[in-house]
Amino acid sequence: MTWIWSNLDLIWDRTIDHLVLSVPSIFLSFVIALPFGWLAHRYRTSRAVILTTVGVLYAIPSLPLFIVLPFIVGTSIRSPLNLIIALTLYGVALMVRVVADGLGSVDRDVQQSATAVGFSGWTSFWQVELPLAGPVLLAGLRVVAVSTVSLATVGAVIGAQNLGSLFTDGFQRGIQAEIIAGIVATVLLALALDAVLVLLGRLLMPWTRRSASGARTRRDAVVAGVAT
Amino acid sequence: MSFLIDTLAWLSDPANWVGAGGIPTRLAQHLLFTLVTLVIAAAIAVPIGFLIGHTGRGRGFAVATSGAFRAIPTLGLLTLVALWVGIGLNAPYVALTVLAIPPILAGAYTGFEAVDRKVIDAARAVGMSEAQIVLKVELPLGLPLLIGGLRSATLQVVATATLAAYVADFGLGRYLFAGLRTRDYGEMLGGSILVILLAIVLEGVFALVQKLVVPRGVTAGLPTDIPGGSSRSRPVMESTIEEGNSNVHST
Description:
The complex is a heterodimer of chains A (about 230) and B (about 250).
Chain A: H1 2-6, H2 8-42, H3 44-59, H4 62-73, H5 80-104, H6 108-116, H7 121-152, H8 165-173, H9 176-204, H10 216-224
Helix pairs in contact in A: 2-3, 2-5, 2-7, 3-5, 4-5, 5-7, 6-7, 7-9, 7-10, 8-9
Chain B: H1 2-12, H2 23-55, H3 59-71, H4 74-85, H5 90-113, H6 117-125, H7 130-164, H8 173-182, H9 185-212, H10 216-221
Helix pairs in contact in B: 1-9, 2-5, 2-7, 3-5, 4-5, 5-7, 6-7, 7-9, 8-9
């Protein structure tokens, strides 16, 4: 415990480092996954190609990816940019499938009604399909946020600074309290980002609070990570 | 492009393919470790998952734990357990078994839950015992999702076993850490490529198994066009047709 009290500054600095890595990755994952998810939802050929690609991408273990990526994109192995690119790739891999599923869950009749009252494909996507897919997208994004925060710690073993540095440093110096502090800080950060997303969801989709049970089964499958 | 040549040179060097530190030995260690961890985790998680899925009790608890475990950083758990039990293989075994349980548990109970209640009622109505319902109805129908859980657990274990080389001298991850320390690009890239290939091959095998275990009766009943047509295949006059609504055409 004494270690924690005398090193609060260090924990805070690493938390900020961690936020700088995670938040851009989560945001970029969502933005990049939207068009790919739409493509996977819309056409059968692109669906097969895109979903297979993201499946393979998601299967790649993080540590080897962190090491191989700098040689492909030319970043320095310890730079935050390297980790952000890798974490974004994982986020996209997870989110594309969710976007495709979410858009697929929109009732066909509703889409046809939107067309009937004069929505174009573009406005129908932004004003009808995307909001209705919202709850599924939010559930997926929450999973992305939590796993991104957890995954970023792996970067510490290649020398990138973040909350994971507390694990490597604590392990090498034999300080249990440092590792425990790192785990607690990581989990708290994940929960905080998760809470922010839930709040954003309530602000942007006020109607979901009334009829949340409809999307529950699908959402639980997404959260459990076993949706096929 | 010199790193590419280094990598190919490292991968094709016969000296790296023999002995205790050779690629076949490390690969075998990695695979054996993954298998043992999964078997222990499955032995714990599958019965609990089936119980939750069959009775419907403790579901909220299972959802909450599998969600919470995702937030726990694997590296943190690994280093902490290593400090407790000492450097060696015990720490990775404990840490990885703990990490593999939630996805398998989730696969087991969602698999059971996904079974249509009417199917279970039908099974009960034709006189099946509870044990028969579990073994002959719920298990085969829920198997694809259970395999899905095993699949994500396997990926997690293979990936984290690589990381475990940080606290124990074993597996393919050793090449990554040794290469990082000595700035030997050939070794760290070669090792990384081997791990990535292993993960992708296992992913492919599981994807195949997941398709194969779908019972034939289920495949036959699946709709063939995936996007699905409109729920109204013909124009709706007057009121919609609803299940159990007998006076649809009474007007």
